[in-house]
């Protein structure tokens, strides 16, 4: 190719311009240092009309620039930088004189130039390329590829780009082996994921350019590990990386709040409590709160994971001493009978309890008692007597009355009747009423609270008696008010008050008398008053006379 001095001059100016721009934007001092050669991809020429017809030279060189940039360690000099100064024809006609190579090396730090030819023969595309040292002008790598059809062109160019890198940079490459423990980790080299590594399955990375790199390892539950490493050419470096587990976190709650927390016997604070830097492992959590039972539990903390503990503390039961005046009242808690006062109740749940006291004859009492956790409460309650009212009336005078309890004890004497609304304790009683010459009467009495119990007393008068002794040797029949009562002789007859006719009769005679009977008194008829006159009564004499006449008549007839 003919050299053009004018183009060479323009190329020198362009390289000066591009080099200045590259220097202004260069931040390489802040990046890890490694061997990264700069390559300039020149337009590939078309070796035959078939290739020229399809423009394959430009196509292949453009593809090669793309794959070298994206898939290799070369720094590719952008073709567009040259086209800012040169037109397409001028750019394609640039020669490779020593002067041109020196300017490329000095101004753009270009290390190698890539050029080549493309031909199209019998449906196949032939690619021949050469990698030329800018310093010496020598071809350091030459390669080729035969492609069947344009559909396979890009894969073939990608393969060629990687082959160029491998053959040219092999002399500056080393190997890296990475082992990670205690778990498998993801390995990144200068921010690029390169694989996973563990102690059992190490990660082997061959063909790494010599230089300084940053390696990073990530694993769930472990702190990210970052480390700077250097790779030497033609050596293998084994790197063993130990990961530190991430601290776990633990949130501790209690119901109620405010419980003191111990972690493995070390006081940590009160609930709610959050602990953010706990190493992986098992911990003993203990909680304590006044008036509540101590609580404990083991918990497992995992690296990088948040754990939570919720404890419902059991309250310490209270107690209650219940006394009543007078003693013996039945004690009810929430309506349930639990015993008789005095009574000590253990294990009373904290809170408000409804306590009731009941005792016969006394007004019931009920109230709310607040028992605090662990507290002993004393309840001493005076009960009020429970009264009803008793009214006793009668139309009779001079009546005596007594009020008896169930055991028959006299608890009250009522001397002046009638009695109206007399206060009496609640309960069951007997009212015993008496009067001279009257039968004593018992009345059942039931006194209810705030109620009046009324009794109208009516007594039955007692009868009087007559006592008749035997009046004669012959039995005497006794008639009272025309009624035959029996034979005299120790006969005692009860009769109502008033006058009564007494008739006495025997074989020898009879006697009638009027006797006044008084209630609850006995009238004794003396024996002398019961004596019957001697001799026969008139009817007896008449009978005897008639009998004598009959006898005489019979005698005369017999003569």
Q: Give the % helix.
A: 10-25%
Q: Note the beta-strand portion.
A: over 45%
Name given to the CATH homologous superfamily of the largest domain? TolB, N-terminal domain
The total beta strand count reads 41
- Largest sheet report: 6 strands, mixed
Number of domains: 5
Tally of individual helices:
8
Backbone shape: rod-shaped
Would you kindly provide a written description of the structure presented here, covering whatever features stand out?
This protein has 559 residues and is of the alpha+beta class. The chain is built from eight helices and 41 strands. The strands form eleven sheets. Strands 1, 2, 3, 4, 5 and 6 form a six-stranded mixed beta sheet that branches. A hairpin with a 5-residue loop joins strand 5 and strand 6. Helix 1 runs parallel beside helix 6 and helix 3 crosses helix 7 (153-169).
Which features does this protein show?
559 residues; alpha+beta; Rossmann fold; Immunoglobulin-like; 5 domains; six-stranded mixed β-sheet; 41 strands; disordered N terminus
Which SSEs are present, and which pair or pack?
Elements: H1 5-24, E1 38-41, E2 45-46, H2 49-54, H3 56-71, E3 75-77, H4 79-83, H5 88-92, H6 98-108, E4 110-121, E5 124-133, E6 139-148, H7 153-169, E7 173-181, E8 185-189, E9 192-197, E10 203-209, E11 211-218, E12 225-231, E13 236-242, E14 248-255, E15 260-263, E16 266-270, E17 273-278, E18 281-288, E19 295-301, E20 306-312, E21 318-325, E22 330-333, E23 336-340, E24 343-348, E25 351-358, E26 365-371, E27 376-382, E28 387-394, E29 400-404, E30 410-414, E31 419-425, E32 427-434, E33 441-447, E34 452-457, E35 464-468, E36 477-480, E37 483-487, E38 491-495, E39 498-505, E40 510-517, E41 522-525, H8 538-558
Parallel strand pairs: 1-3, 1-4, 2-4, 7-13, 14-20, 21-27, 28-34, 35-41
Antiparallel strand pairs: 4-5, 5-6, 7-10, 8-9, 8-11, 11-12, 14-17, 15-16, 15-18, 18-19, 21-24, 22-23, 22-25, 25-26, 28-31, 29-30, 29-32, 32-33, 35-38, 36-37, 36-39, 39-40
Helix pairs in contact: 1-6, 3-7
């Amino acid at each position: 190719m003919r050299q053009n001095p004018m183009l060479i001059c323009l190329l020198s100016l362009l390289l000066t311009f591009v080099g200045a721009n590259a220097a202004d934007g260069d931040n390489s001092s802040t990046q890890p240092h490694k061997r990264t050669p700069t390559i300039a991809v020149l337009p590939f020429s078309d070796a035959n009309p078939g290739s020229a017809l399809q423009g394959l030279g430009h196509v292949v060189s453009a593809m090669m620039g793309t794959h070298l940039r994206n898939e290799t360690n070369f720094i590719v000099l952008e073709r567009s930088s040259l086209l800012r100064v040169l037109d397409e024809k001028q750019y394609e006609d640039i020669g490779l004189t020593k002067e041109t190579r020196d300017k490329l090396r000095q101004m753009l730090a270009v290390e190698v130039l890539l050029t080549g030819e493309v031909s199209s023969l019998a449906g196949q595309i032939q690619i021949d390329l050469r990698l030329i040292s800018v310093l010496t002008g020598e071809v350091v790598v030459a390669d080729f590829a035969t492609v069947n059809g344009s559909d396979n062109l890009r894969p073939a160019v990608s393969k060629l780009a990687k082959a160029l890198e491998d053959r040219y940079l092999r002399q500056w490459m080393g190997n890296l082996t990475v082992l990670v423990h205690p778990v498998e980790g993801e390995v990144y080299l200068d921010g690029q994921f390169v694989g996973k590594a563990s102690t059992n399955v190490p990660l082997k990375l061959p063909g790494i350019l010599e230089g300084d790199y940053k390696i990073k390892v990530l694993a769930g539950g472990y702190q990210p590990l970052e480390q700077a490493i250097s790779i030497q050419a033609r050596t293998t470096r084994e790197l063993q990386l130990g990961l530190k587990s991430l601290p776990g976190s633990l949130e501790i709650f209690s119901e109620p709040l405010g419980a003191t927390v111990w972690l493995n016997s070390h006081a940590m604070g009160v609930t709610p409590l959050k602990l953010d830097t706990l190493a992986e492992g098992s911990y003993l959590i203990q909680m304590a709160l006044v008036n509540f039972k101590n609580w404990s539990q083991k918990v497992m903390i995992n690296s990088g994971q948040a754990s939570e503990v919720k404890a419902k503390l059991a309250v310490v039961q209270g107690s209650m001493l219940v006394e009543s005046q007078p003693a013996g009242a039945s004690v009810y808690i929430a309506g349930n009978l639990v015993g008789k006062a005095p009574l000590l109740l253990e294990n009373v749940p904290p809170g408000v309890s409804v306590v009731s006291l009941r005792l016969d004859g006394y007004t019931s009492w009920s109230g709310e008692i607040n028992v605090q956790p662990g507290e002993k409460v004393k309840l001493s309650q005076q009960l009020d007597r429970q009264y009803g009212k008793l009214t006793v009336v009668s139309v009779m005078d001079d009546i005596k009355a007594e009020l008896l309890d169930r055991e028959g004890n006299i608890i009250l004497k009522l001397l002046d009747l009638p009695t109206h609304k007399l206060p009496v304790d609640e309960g069951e009683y007997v009212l015993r009423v008496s009067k001279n010459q009257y039968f004593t009467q018992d009345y059942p009495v039931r006194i209810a609270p705030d109620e009046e119990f009324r009794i109208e007393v009516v007594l039955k008068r007692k009868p009087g008696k007559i006592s008749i002794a035997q009046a004669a040797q012959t039995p005497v029949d006794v008639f009272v008010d025309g009624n035959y009562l029996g034979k005299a002789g120790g006969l005692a007859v009860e009769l109502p008050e008033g006058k009564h006719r007494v008739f006495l009769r025997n074989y020898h005679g009879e006697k009638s008398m009027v006797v006044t009977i008084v209630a609850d008194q006995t009238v004794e008829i003396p024996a002398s008053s019961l004596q019957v006159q001697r001799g026969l009564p008139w009817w007896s004499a008449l009978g005897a006379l008639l009998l004598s006449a009959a006898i005489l008549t019979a005698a005369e007839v017999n003569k």
